[in-house]
Amino acid sequence: MYKLLIAEDEELERIALKKIIESNFSNINVVNSAKNGEEAVNLARTYMPDILLIDIRMPVKNGIEAHKQIIKFHPTIKTIIITAHSEFVYAQEAIKYNVYDFLLKPVSPSVICNCIQSIISSTDKITTTVETPFSQEIINQCLNIIELNYLNDLSLADIAQQVHLSEKYFSRYFKCKTGHTFTQYVQMLKINRAKTLLLNPNMPIFRIAMDLKFSDSAYFTKVFFKHEGLTPRQYRQQYVSNKL
Questions:
Q1: Mean pLDDT throughout 122-147?
Q2: In CATH, what number does 184-243 get?
Q3: In what order do the strands lie in the sheet with 78-83?
Q4: Domain ranges of the chain
Q5: For residue range 99-132, what is the model confidence (pLDDT) as tens digits?
Q6: C-alpha angle with apex 222: 218 to 223, nearest 5 degrees?
Q7: How confident is the model over 37-57, as pLDDT tens digits?
Q8: Residue 190 contacts by C-beta under 8 Å, 6 or more apart in sequence?
């Protein structure tokens, strides 16, 4: 199932685009819709969609600026920009930022569907070809996505889909290149963040566990001790003692 995000400031346009996509694609989930560029960036960070359908002229942040910001944490997203003829000269700026396509208003449902189908077909072709070992660039992309989204219920399958590889293949080569499983790497990020938060003596340990998406304080303590050889409380006390 592919995830698609719509960004359009006109409500009727958002509704129409959603209806077109849902009536023509059974393998696409329209995860949400944004009414301005800033909201599009925030929703893209939350949902990590495969496809972004975005208007170029929107309040707060225009479509080009939103796309440029999104690809910093989601470099494999396929962005389709919708633009009017008079705005096309501005849209050309986005070519160097790997925009997938421009659709000129007024745009027909068939043109929208053909463009989206082209993305799906090219993605399916990539995932069904013989997989080759990771390049360092792909590993860096994966690490960047994980580090920016590890508190957003990010899964191994999500990352594998972003780089168009099978989950099994991604898992094996991720461990080969990093020395850690995906779960271990996410836990390391959480523990490193916890160590920073523990330096604030006014922040309750249960709150840190909650913010880092641990199921409860006991499990947080168990994982922290496994990594650091100290409980969170002992780590905090050690820091306070060293300051005295």
A1: 65
A2: 1.10.10.60
A3: 28-34, 2-7, 51-55, 78-83, 101-104
A4: 2-128, 136-179, 184-243
A5: 888 787 788 899 999 999 988 887 654 444 444 4
A6: 120
A7: 999 999 999 999 999 999 988
A8: 150, 151, 212, 213, 214, 223
